[in-house]
Amino acid sequence: MEYAGMRRQFSTYVPPGLCDSQAKAEAPGRGSALFALHCFGCTGGTMLEAFMPVARRHGFILVVPEGVDSSWSAVHCCGTALEMGLDDVGFLRAVKDSLEDRLAATHGRAVADLASRGSTFATGWSNGGYLAMLAAARSGPSPPLFQAIAPISGFQDAGLAPVPQPVPLMMHHAEDDRFVSFDGCCRRGETPPRCCCGITGPCYSAPKVFEEWAVQVNRCEADSARKPIVVEWKHRRIGVTCSSASRCAANTTLCRHRRGGHFNQHGFSRTFPEAMIEAIGNFFAGSAVRSS
């Protein structure tokens, strides 16, 4: 597609049998669009492979945009897109606006009609996580671009614009992440860089951003974000603690992985723990809102 004078690309994956009458009756989230945003230096293929099982299980239409030179412009990160000052939030909105016509042309009117009544979600890894949060927070007076987000190893800090309605959030970040620090990327004076790729922000930690989103966006009571409901679960040797604020207008959860790194232990082609992907899929399914 053409956007802002540049040729931009995105791909879609529609799970088999999406429009079967029995399938449509099983879950209200069927036909919802799930945007999956790749990391800096990656391509959409990584996200496509990781989230196809989620799309099949829940009946989501997977939407995989491609960044310019494998990068996204998202305030703090990264690469060519950031240097050029590209409007990648605008690009994502253009993709969303064109999705119904694309699906009608490639998969038929029934799939397009199903998508038109579904929600729109976003997950993003690293640079893609930065962009997912930015896009959800900076919609201006319009409804949020995404109805729920699940950033992985990337987050935005203070200065969130007023959001017209709550946006469910599930953050996943590892305490030992050396690419995007759990404690924030802010560089002070002559101290060594805390994050990769020239990232110098945000200065807030992942828990601080979680609290900020809980209060500013999802209207949680402040104390509930500072003293959240905590659930622990194990995945092999990786301990995971998920904390959810209570008394909120929308689900607000931070999952901290004690030994997950940047979720790239096997390289940048095959990466995420299956349990984390499954949790994200269930989170989106629970956030689905279908119009009549």
TrEMBL record:
Q: Which UniProt keywords apply?
A: Hydrolase, Signal
> GO terms for molecular function, please?
hydrolase activity
Please give the InterPro entries that the UniProt record associates with this protein: AB_hydrolase_fold, Plant_Biomass_Hydrol_Est
SUPFAM superfamilies annotated for this entry?
A: alpha/beta-Hydrolases
Tree of life domain: Eukaryota
Instruction: Output this protein's name.
Output: Poly(3-hydroxybutyrate) depolymerase
Organism of origin is Tetraselmis sp. GSL018
